[in-house]
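hey m, so remember when u said the tokens were messed up on ur end? i reran from scratch. heres the input so u can diff it against urs
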Amino acid sequence: MAARRERPTWGPKKLVAWLRATEPEVRWPAPSTAGGILDRAGLVRRRKRRRHASPWSEPFAAAQSPNEVWSIDMKGWFRTGDGVRIDPLTLQDAASRYLLVCKRLPQPDGSQVRPVLEQAFREYGLPDAIRSDNGPPFASVGPGSLSSLAVWWVKLGIVPERIDPGHPEQNGRLERLHRTLKAETATPPMATARKQQKAFDAFRHTYNQERPHEALGQEPPGSRYYSSYRPYPARVCSPEYEFGVTVRRVRTNGQIKWKGDTIYLSQALKGEPVGLSQRDDRNWTIQFGPLAIGILDDHARCIVHMPTKKVLPMSPV
């Protein structure tokens, strides 16, 4: 009962698992018995059972080991008691559920997200892929949906994965974490932005090191996570292409030079080399690093197809 009062959002399963880990010499009751004790003490809140179309774990079948997929999102903004807007950035390892980052940003844009990610890369290494929604700063409407952040990821050897529009359940583990984060740190919000970040920091420690996770056999995420073997490099290099691939460098205005003409590609790719490989007599595949990001019509001198539908993962050449 004292543990429930201290952790009011934890259910009987989590409470018993935590108590067994912290005081293993005690014979603790089964979760069902613990639930009855809490119910009789008036410490159980009734809530309406929600129906879900499919399990949230379904899109993550490929994430078997830490650092295969990280999930990133900007949790919905809110204001602290003094009126300051809070835009929390969250970054989670999909396999272990380890919360790598929970940071309040002054502005939810790429210039604010990148330094936070750089710090995470230096501390934990690089993942194989980062999964996000389709909005800025993680994606754009340009070729391959590449934003400036995603271009940087590709240069680091990270595949940008995109969930389908209107399907947050494809990033379900992070969405579920957001619900817990809101309940434990922002219901209601803290009085000031500084106190809100302290609440985020405390939540992150508890979530990673203490809070049992049912999908992990009632072990906390910190017991399953380990850093990536791929360190953050001192120098980030542009991609190179195989022999036979025609290379063009994107100009500062987002255009490439092609057979005497200029064709607009993307501002996000300015200064970067792209490769073109002939598909047939008329069409050329445009690639950035290992990713196919569009098709150039050689006759019409324009891009006729850009794979903006988000697939998991993005299609390699």
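this time it looks ok to me. The helical segments are 2-6, 12-22, 31-40, 110-124, 148-155, 172-185, 193-209. if urs says something different then somethings off w ur setup not the seq
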